[in-house]
Amino acid sequence: MIDRKWHAVYTKPNKEKKVASLLIKKKIAAYIPVYDTECIIEGRKKVVEKPVFPGYVFIAMDKEENVLQLSGDIINFVYWKANPATIQNSEINALKLFLNEYSCTRLEKAPVSPNEQFKIDNELQVRRKGNFVEANVATVKLTIPSLGRVLVAEIRKEKMEEFMYAKGTIFKNITGS
Q1: What are the pLDDT digits (tens) for 123-143?
Q2: What is the rounded CA–CA span in Å between residue 50 and residue 38?
Q3: What is the Cα–Cα distance from 2 to 136, expressed in whole angstroms?
């Protein structure tokens, strides 16, 4: 399998799905990381998909193509150090697996080290409510160095064992080791 280079493009607000659909029609691989969240729409709770990276569409091109000319909804490439940012295939795979397993509760900026690999961390949180201490929530983080971002999800203590097993599986699936 070829280790494709992915890039990110900025889109106009709320045009991610339209841009991705157009790119796919043009035979360009496109991916929009999404998570489900509850919203109140017309007085009812509904689960809606929201992009993890608002305004971004990830694309994989086999050859240099001028995707900026394909749609007026594509603003530009996401740049890193004067070049279009390159996202490794392994990072996209990790992102897909992470979002498939966990609900993304927040996105954080992270210090970027150019030689750092993506990583998944977990840490047990201790919460204090008055005189009661709760230690049954774990935070799971996926660091994506090429984007300088960390995806954070919270899981219950009872799911921690499943996570530890899945963590090994995720690394095996992505790294092939």
Answers
A1: 554 555 555 555 556 778 888
A2: 10
A3: 41
